[in-house]
């Protein structure tokens, strides 16, 4: 029997970027917030240790333990899904701060085209540019409406960057200037300009200088140690929830953090959420936490799973196309190329998570797609993140994957190779979705989440195009030999590709085709908000965190309105047909 606790104003499920932003904004307004996090507590002091690639990059010290929590996966609906026994294609974080602790810090704004992608594509290329199997739709909000929230996130995190002529328009400069450039980045920029492209220094949450944000929290200057992705920052120089929004929430006295608290169900009655049921992972005790407002701020996959498990919203049915929970799961298309330089060496072991240069000339609708067999595009970047020896073994195609030849080639090319990577957009398809597994359960007896996903023709065509463009840049950079990446026949859950999963609880203007409005409020249960990349109706050509942050700040505004006005569906933007 679960122990029933005292009711609070708000409970959040997950304490990463979205949970931290919500907690900071609501507690500043005087509301009592409880943050439930299934992982342990941690902070900057926990990263004061020798950099350990094996512990964190290979053995995933900050990631989810798949022996306790995992998903099942299949490519097609007629296949039997099997549990993911080890992390591979994407790395699911766990613990206070979530992925905001172990991210690289790339921070982008999705393009105006992204938010109105269906309308803009139809208007320019016709409604038959993609087949009806692609479930493309607008987000129910415009870029102009979301722009102030992008800047709010950038102010809080102190993002370092410079104006991007091919990116989303800005009303304000970045809070801090761009990171240092390097000979590698300069070489990329020169080659890009020779090809009439528009390179810029990558926007970064590894700050170029010490910075105090509007809430009075200090973020230190990056030390360029080369240990960002999969690692926490011992300098407090990589913006994370732990050094920005969570300290702000705690200072108000209105925030209670409860780590080691695994939420297994959203409780609801008569169209209202009443609280959550959670398990103390240390003791096994069950608790019921009542709340006036429940907010799902966990990772994409868990947000969807909790709604399906709690029987909230209509599950998506790929056969009929009806239902919304689990709909429009998207990934990212990671093309690119690697160039090998026989007579030059580069200091590839040096760097930082967001030390890079990017061109957006092939992103969004920045180029004409009339004669192309795909829509959208992706960003092309060269990054100098700190090449580490265990997992960095670039070798030319045709080299054996083990043995004497492999060792010789990997040693030779360790600092004689450079890669230009693509982050290609992912378009939703009716056969790519999330659901509950009928066969496999977790330690609490609840069904695992099932991922059904495979590459589409849109994906293959886009991957080929972006990879060829990446190869052209490397040739212009003077590479002696260039290997252009190829997409596999089918998507596989290994090896690592990107952790940019999106969709499942998508945002929109119509309750028939979306799960939440543009304040991240559930249409069917108005005191339940679902915040994060689960709201993305497709995935764009960038890392999603900047857009997640913007949506979180907008959601916080909506939740405050909901609470201040006594609880009703929040008046949404002009793009919504329902209020």
Automatic annotation (TrEMBL):
Keywords: FAD, Flavoprotein, Oxidoreductase. Residues 217-329 form the Glucose-methanol-choline oxidoreductase N-terminal domain. Residues 428-552 form the Glucose-methanol-choline oxidoreductase C-terminal domain. InterPro entries: FAD/NAD-bd_sf, GMC_OxRdtase_N, GMC_OxRtase_C. Residues 383-402 are annotated as: Disordered. It comes from the Bacteria. Pfam families: GMC_oxred_C (PF05199), GMC_oxred_N (PF00732). The keyword Plastid does not apply. The keyword Acyltransferase does not apply. Belongs to the GMC oxidoreductase family. This is GMC family oxidoreductase. It comes from Oceanobacillus aidingensis.
């Amino acid at each position: 029997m679960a122990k029933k606790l005292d009711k609070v104003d708000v409970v959040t499920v997950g304490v990463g970027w979205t949970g931290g932003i919500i907690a900071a904004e609501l507690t500043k307004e005087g509301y009592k917030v409880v943050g439930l996090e299934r992982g342990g507590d941690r902070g900057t002091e926990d990263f004061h240790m020798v950099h350990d690639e094996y512990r964190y990059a290979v053995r995933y010290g900050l990631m989810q333990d798949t022996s306790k929590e995992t998903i099942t996966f299949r490519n097609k609906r007629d296949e039997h899904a099997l549990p993911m026994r080890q992390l591979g294609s994407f790395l699911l974080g766990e613990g206070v701060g979530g992925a905001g602790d172990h991210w690289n810090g790339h921070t982008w704004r999705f393009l105006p085209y992204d938010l109105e992608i269906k309308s803009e594509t139809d208007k320019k290329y016709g409604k038959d540019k993609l087949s009806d199997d692609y479930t493309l739709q607008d987000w129910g909000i415009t870029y102009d409406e979301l722009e102030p929230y992008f800047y709010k996130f950038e102010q809080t995190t102190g993002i370092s960057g410079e104006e991007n002529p091919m990116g989303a328009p800005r009303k304000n400069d970045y809070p801090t200037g761009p990171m240092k450039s390097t000979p590698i980045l300069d070489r990329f920029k020169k080659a890009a300009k020779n090809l009439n492209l528009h390179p810029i220094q990558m926007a970064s949450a590894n700050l170029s200088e010490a910075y105090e944000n509007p809430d009075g929290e200090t973020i230190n200057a990056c030390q360029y140690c080369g240990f960002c992705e999969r690692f926490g920052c011992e300098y407090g120089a990589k913006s994370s929830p732990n050094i920005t929004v969570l300290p702000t929430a705690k200072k108000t006295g209105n925030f209670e953090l409860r780590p080691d608290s695994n939420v297994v169900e959203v409780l609801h009655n008569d169209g209202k959420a009443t609280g959550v049921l959670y398990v103390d992972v240390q003791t096994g005790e069950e608790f019921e936490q009542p709340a006036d407002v429940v907010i799902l701020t966990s990772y994409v996959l868990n947000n969807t799973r909790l709604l399906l498990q709690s029987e909230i919203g209509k599950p998506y049915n790929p056969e009929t196309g009806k239902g919304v929970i689990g709909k429009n799961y998207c990934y990212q298309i990671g093309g690119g190329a690697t160039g090998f330089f026989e007579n030059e060496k580069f200091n590839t072991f040096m760097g930082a998570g967001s030390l890079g240069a990017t061109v957006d000339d092939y992103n969004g609708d920045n180029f004409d797609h009339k004669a192309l067999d795909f829509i959208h595009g992706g960003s092309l970047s060269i990054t100098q993140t700190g090449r580490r020896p265990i997992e960095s073994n670039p070798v030319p195609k045709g080299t054996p994957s083990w043995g004497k030849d492999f060792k010789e080639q990997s040693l030779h090319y360790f600092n004689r190779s450079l890669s230009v990577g693509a982050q290609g957009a992912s378009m939703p398809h009716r056969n790519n979705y999330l659901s509950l597994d009928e066969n496999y359960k977790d330690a609490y007896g609840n069904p695992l989440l099932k991922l059904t996903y495979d590459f589409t023709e849109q994906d293959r065509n886009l991957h080929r195009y972006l990879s060829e463009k990446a190869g052209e840049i490397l040739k212009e950079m003077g590479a002696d030999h260039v290997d252009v990446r190829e997409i596999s026949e089918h998507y596989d859950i290994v090896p690592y590709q990107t952790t940019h999963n999106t969709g499942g609880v998508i945002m929109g203007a119509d309750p028939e085709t979306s799960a939440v409005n543009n304040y991240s409020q559930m249409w069917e249960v108005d005191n339940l908000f679902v915040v994060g990349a689960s709201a993305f109706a497709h995935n764009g050509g960038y890392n999603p965190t900047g857009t997640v942050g913007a949506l979180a700040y907008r959601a916080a505004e909506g939740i405050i309105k909901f609470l201040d006005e006594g609880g009703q569906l929040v008046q949404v933007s002009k793009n919504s047909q329902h209020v």
